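Researcher: Here's the sequence for the chain we discussed earlier.
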Amino acid sequence: MTAIAGEVLSARRPRRVVVVALVFLACVIAYTDRVNLSVAAVAMREQFGWSQTQKGLVLSAFFIGYLLCMFVAGLLTIRFGGKRVLGWCVLAWSLLTLLMPVAATASLAMLIAARIGMGAGEAGTFPAGYDLFGRWTPPTERARSVAWMMNGIPVGSVIGLVGSGWLIERYGWQAAFYAFGVLGLVWLIVWVQQVANDPADDPRLAPAERALLGAMPRAPQAAPRLPVRRLLHWPVLGVVLGHFAVTWNLYVLLSWLPSYFREVQHVDIATAGLFSAAPWALMFAATSLAGSLSDRMIRHGVSPTRVRKLMQSVGLLVSAAFLLSMPLAHSASSALVLLCAGTGTLGFAWCGFGPAVIDVAPRHSALLLGFSNTFATLPGAFGVTLIGWLIDLTGTYTVAFAVTAGVSIAGALAFDLLFNACPIVE
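Model: Thanks. This is the structure I predict for it:
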C-alpha cells in the first residue's frame, strides 16, 4: 500500500507538490490524533465520572507539552532540517496515540501525562513544514503552500471528529485512538521514501524544476544563529497576537463543540462529532480561497502588508460577529449554521499571519514560527481549561463564545496596527 501511495504521489507531479502534499497529510494526521479525544471524552467522562473541569484538564494537557517544546522544535528544525524533525514527530505522537486507551484505563494522571507527551511530539509539525517550504517553494507559491498546510487543520478535524464519532458508536471509544494512530505510521513509511530535505538532494527532481528551485535563495542546512532579541519587533508582536487570536478560536472550538452539541443541543455522540466537523469543512474551502486570492492580489501589485491585514481582519472580525450571535441559536440546526459561518470565515485568517511569518523572517521562518506558536499555544494550555471552569461556573456555553469573540476582535486590531511585511532579518 505504501509503494502504491508513493507511485501516486510521484507520477507526473513536480517534486515540490509532493513535499507540500505530504506536509499537508502530516498536518491532517496531527489533527485527527489531536481532536479524537474531544469526541471520545464525551463517552470517557460518562465512564470515568469526570467533571467538566477535569475534562478540560485532560483536553488542555496536550497543549502543555506543545507549549513547552514549540520553540525547541524550531531550533531542532534549523539544526537537523524539516524532514528529520517531522518524521520523528509523527512517529512519537502516533505511538502515544496508540497507547492512549491504556493510559486512560490506568489513571487520570497517566492520561494527562500521555497527552502532554503527545503535545511535545506534535510541536515540530509547523516549524518543520515552514522549513521545508523555505527550501521547496518559490515566493509566488508561498501563500498557497502555507494555505495547504493550514488546510490540514480543518481536514484533520473533520476526519477526526466524524471518524471518531462513527468508531465510538460501533466499537467503543478506544477504537478512535487505535485507528488514527496507525495512520501516522503508514504516512511515515511514505515520507521516508519520497522526501528529501533539500531539492539538491532529490535524485528524482526534473531539470526544469531543479532550475526553478536552484534560482531561489538556498536555505542553508544550518541557518546562522539568530538571537531572540532580534525577534522583539513590532511586526513580530503583530504576528504573535494575530496568531494567538486564531488559535484561541481553534483550540476552544475544537475542544468544546462536541460537548456543546451533546449537552446543549442534545444530539447523540455520533451526531455531535458530525455537527462539530461541519464548520471545519467550510474552513477548508475558505482557506483554499484565501490562499489563491492572496497570491493573485500580490501578483497584481497589492502590497503583501495590505493583503495579510485584509485576510486577518476578515477572518477574525466576521468570525467574532457570528460567535456573538450564538445565543440566538435555539436548535441544533441554527447553531450549526452560525458555527459553520463563524469557523469557516476564520480560514481567511490563516492566510494573514501564516505567510506573514515568512514575510518577516524568510530564512528563519521555522524559528519565528516556533517563537510565535509558543505564545499561540497558551489558549490550548490554559484557555480550554478556563472555558471548562466558566461553563461549570455559569452553567452555559454562552460565555465561551463571548470570550472567544472578544479575543478575535482584539487580535485583529493588534495585527492591523503592528504588522508590516518588510523582513526584520534576512
